[in-house]
Please model this.
Amino acid sequence: MKIRTRLLISFITVITLPLFLSGILVWGIAQYQVRVIEKTYGLTGAQYKSFANSMEFLQTMPEVKEFFVHMGISIVLILALTALILIFWIYGGLIRQVNRLQAATRRVQSGDLDFELKPESDDEMGELIQAFDDMRARLKENAEEKLRSDRENKELISNISHDLKTPITAIKGYVEGIQDGVADTPEKMDKYLGTIYNKANEMNLLINELTLYSKIDTNRIPYNFAPLSVNAYFDDCAEDLAMELEAKNVQFTYLNYVTEDQMIIADPEQLKRVINNIISNSLKYSDGDHRHINLRVKDVGDFIQVELEDNGKGIAAKDLPHIFERFYRTDASRNSSRGGSGIGLSIVKKIIEDHGGKIWATSREGIGTVMYFVIRKYQEVPNYE
Model:
């Protein structure tokens, strides 16, 4: 019952109940006094009524004075009893919930958020308790999110530190080799300098990922969306990939099934980052001398679907739903050849979703993985003017 309703009932009760009870009491006392007067003065009922109408009777009859005193005391007692009952009724309904709220507040102050406070009534106190519990739940969620974020940031720093050590160590080794005269032929010198350049690029990639990660957390990834020709864009991408993968002894196949006039709205730089991150991740988990990457572009209704397939070791079914989560690694043990920041695919997912698309993967262990993502086609709005 609402507190306002209780107060209204209390107000009406304080007015009506004493009047009702007082009326009954006055009538009872009056009846008693009539019998006393009749017995004391020997008056009949009619005579008593005649005397009762005179001021002299009121002033000379002590029983009448006693009657009014009794009536006043009775009214006061009835009012006090009514107020006491109503106080217990209202107070009893509130104090238990106030005590529960105070106890919950003390638990929150001590840092304990792992509990639930359920309202016991459908009134203002129940609404207050529900609001308090909603606040507690939000505080708990924020605290858990902060712990998770701190844990992820520590892991990111650890991953980046580990992965920067490898190229730095290699660069130092090759520079020392040059300084010590180990690279004593033009061929060795070119090889040493080429390795130093590649390791510097690896470091630059890790730093770029770290920078982009910080922008993801604050939703400040810079996008420059523009209409792109599907064929022209992916033909250029395929040409660049063919050269890069050939240098790494990776076979590359490009298939495009889209008609010439199809367009998409995308940021060309960020979309290229998506493709590069996926391929980089594929190569990281590919073994052997016969590595293969397939790029397919298809028209699937309102979307353009891009498929990147590798013949790597594949992903276990238990790991597949988690590969786009930050810092998730399918390999429990990390090594220098399969390092990385652990945020590459999470960046990919964020970019694709910011383009209004979707990304997913299929995989079979020992056979390979296919990454799919879709981007909505661009269609010009016709002008009827």
Q: What stands out?
A: Confidence is low (pLDDT under 50) at residues 54-60, 332-339. Residues 273 and 348 are 8 Å apart (CA to CA). Residues 3-112 form one domain. Strands lie at 226-229, 251-256, 263-266, 292-300, 303-310, 358-364, 368-376.
